[in-house]
Amino acid sequence: MQGEQITQEDRFWLLVSLKLAGEATPEELAELETFLQQRPEMGLRMEMLNGFWLGEPEDQGRRNDALNRHLQRLSNHLSTPTLNYEATMATEEAPAPLPVETHTRGIYRLLWPIVGIAAAIALIFFISHRPESIKNERVEQVAENTISTKPGSKSKIQLPDGSQVWLNADSRITYNETFRGPFREVQITGEAYFDIAKDKDHPFIIHANSIDVRVLGTSLNIRSYANEKNTEAVLIRGSIEVTLRSSPDKKIILQPNEKLVVQNGKAVVVKGMPSVQKYEDAPVMILGKAHIQPKDTIAMDILWVKNKLAFDHETLEEVARKIERWYAVKVNIPDERLKHVEYSGVFEDESLRQVMEALRWTGNFRYSINKREVTITP
Amino acid sequence: MQERIAFYEDMKAYNQLFLLLSGGIFRFTYSLVKSNEVAEEIVSDVFIKLWQIKDRLPEIENLKVYLYTIAKNFSLNYINKHYKNTVVSLDGLDVETMIDLNSPAEMCVSADLVQQIRKVIRQLPPQCRLIFQMVKEDGLRYKEVAAILDISPLTVRNQLAIAIKKIGESLPVYLQSGFTMVSRFSHS
To answer: Which value does ipTM take for this structure?
Structure first.
């Protein structure tokens, strides 16, 4: 635009553009003023341009939603047990392995359908402005969504119906992408805490290792790791109906703060207080009270949601499993006798070494930490 | 403990930075990849990258430009991978801009006129449209736009002037003629 003859109008539009962009020098602004005095009819156009240049400020809620989704992804990717819970960022000492990020398209696509659902609390819609020009084949082809956490990492997700799910370390949840149909169904491996949105017409069904749980609107914890003997369901609010996969005719109704323990693969129903040693003998399914931690009045089973590592009369073998997942380490206990000693305790924001120290004090054993491997010896 | 405080402070600053810049970077990325899902994912990748290099941040001169540039590279990578036509620069790449216009009432003009402005914007050349969006919506300086797009600041200045001229010329000179134009449109 330099050199050859610049028309007066071109010069005018250049000055207007500089002014709007905030790039004009005082001289240029003065020049614009002079021009407008000579050509007052251009004033209206400039006013209109001004009017639409100053757009509305961006929807802050939408950005907050985007931030939360991003933080979930960040925590997954860094394999840091970061859980954004009740607006506080809870953090543990991060296990070291930072995965070198490459693909990532996967998880995000999975999280996307969650967008657009009014969260019960947030009540904010993410306004989807997908232009019609995208003929998006990926939308049609993906039938199932799977969200998983690595050892040492947790995640909170929202399902398309507004239900919230906290996924503990090394766990996986799978659900139909559209989440439509007569039932809201999810498959769970590992441990998850559910806060399920009420919808009487669409019962929520959780498929775990050996049980199916039917829910109307409630919160509960499901623990169903493939490498553990038991599948557990703890009800916090509402009521649920549990069916054993192996004997579908038997239905168990759980009341709040009740806990159901099912030994995987077997189907005898026995009611009684849960006690770890008895599992070996007869009862394969135990219905009992969930242990409430007096200080917090919150069931021990869901302390992990609050980023607390809790053991409730658990054998060292079980404790080791939890530590493995929590800190993304490997725990070896070569001595058989040590494995069956019971421990209880709640840890918050403690490092692996601090937890091991505390256990060592009460447990009378020795341990060594070598990189990501812990060995416990008498 | 000190580390922890430092970490929390970091986290807070990081979150604020995300809230401040992610909107613009999303828009920019969307313009290139033309998909909400992909754009949001790339934005997230950009900020993951930022987290990973957070110790080296003091070395970065202009963080905004830096993040936009990462977003540009990620977008071009994505386009290369998914459209099988090798793109090395933004030249010739069609863009899909997201330019917000106020509602007709706020702009004191008719809905027809807003439609007309949109049409004019759509007809701008891709690069011109992208520059227009980056300056108007993201509030970037000419120098910043130039650094991100790897062009000269003078080009940015000229392109924006062209956009403003095209839009400006589509606007009525007098309010009166604006109304007559409106009524002519609505009767047709």
So the answer is: 0.79
